[in-house]
Amino acid sequence: MKNETLFTELKDKATRDRAFSHLVQEYQQRLYWHIRRMVLNHDDADDVLQNTFIKVYRNIENFRGDSAVYSWMYRIATNEALNFLKKQANRYRVTNEELRERMVNNLVADTYFEGGEIELQLQKALATLPEKQLLVFNMRYYQDMKYEDMSEILDTSVGALKASYHHAVKKLQHYLKENA
Questions:
Q1: Per-residue confidence at 31, pLDDT binned at 50, 70, 90?
Q2: pTM recorded for the entire structure
Q3: Pick from 63, 104, 111, 174: most CB atoms within 10 A?
Q4: Cα–Cα distance, 85 to 123 (Å, whole number)
Q5: Quick check: 150 and 156 in contact, CB under 8 A?
Q6: Helix boundaries (H) for 93-157
Q7: Which domains does the chain have, with CATH numbers?
Q8: Which long-range contacts (CB under 8 A, 24 or more apart) does 66-71 make?
């Protein structure tokens, strides 16, 4: 389904459910992995994904079409994941960095975690990155997302995103070198 057709069908109450179902099929897996790389836990990622699609459905009337539907959905997914992480940090009365460290340490117990020691080391390195650098790194490295698309999703200039990615890579290299 083309974006223009999808947008039109999402706005029409008679075709909204079918178009939304198509939207879920099209983007569910990509959004899941985007969220999962932020929250690390499968069950938490599922919950955040469900909340994302609920928010998308409830707010489809407000979508103006200024950006691509997927950019709008990624922005919602990103915000939902960040809000989830903030709530978790508040709940446990820890900083975001301490929460991230706790989440990485819990990865080994996650039955859905399929990575080995190398993946675990990478996750520990990623946990040291500031939030923005982590987002940019995940979107660029894991999803091979273009900077222009990231710019639309994160509402940041391409130049700032390139700088964030560069700094993230340097920090990861340093961490992995020091902790090998």
A1: very high
A2: 0.89
A3: 104
A4: 16
A5: yes
A6: 96-106, 117-126, 131-137, 147-154
A7: 1-114 (1.10.1740.10), 116-180 (1.10.10.10)
A8: 67/152, 68/3, 68/149, 68/152, 69/3, 69/6, 69/7, 69/10, 69/23, 70/27, 70/30, 71/149, 71/152, 71/153
